[in-house]
Fold this protein.
Amino acid sequence: MMSQEEILVSLVQGRDGKAWAERQQTGWSVYSKEPACTWTGIQCDSMDRTTVVSIDLSGTKLEGTIPPELEKLPNLRVLALGSNEIRGNIPSQVANMPNLEKFNVSDNFITGTVPSFASRLLNTVDLSKNRLAGPLPEDFGTNHDRIMLYDVMKNILTGTVPGSVRDMEALETLSLSDNHFSGLLPTGLGMLQNLKYLYLDDNYFVGTIPADLARVQGSLLEEVWLQDNRLSGTVPVAFADSSNLLDLYLDGKEEYYVCDYFF
């Protein structure tokens, strides 16, 4: 059975990884005399003070891949590796970890597809600014009624937005900007009671803006970015009465018909 230290060290890969480990203030070696809970970027459970629950190595210039060995930390709640030089795909073993609450690997070089995450405790998924391709999983919103932020902007994702997005009842920010999504804008987004920021710009969406997106009563929407798509039709007049709405961007791609403004 691997120790926590041995599992964590699986993040240290190759010559560049060893150089990275040497730059850290404490730990990151199986020969380290310090327990894992004292290592740079590691937090342990506040009760037992021995169980690793958080790995946050954001912006530390870590190079390598996401090791599947991390699944052997079943109590891990936070995996934050954003703004590094992480390559390869997201292992299914990691996506299936049962207690993840925050998963952030933004601004890396990750390839492959967007996985289905198993944890029902997730509140943050940030996969933005990578090289992920293919469609979103059909069930990406299923059993994820705690997710508040879902961000996959600036990848090369394709396909339509699955209807399961309507199951994400706690969703505050949905960012799908700068991909290759197509088809109609998903209906039901306007019924998400907590949605504040909706970024669907710079894709290939077609058709009209769903009327429910412009509902007035109870809407918390502050920003709606739909520009640089292939939308047509008219802008729902109810947007004019949305008291919280600060930004509404609708400019279309040059070669396509742009929505008519009437307020």
User: Anything to note?
Assistant: The CA atoms of residues 99 and 201 lie 32 Å apart.
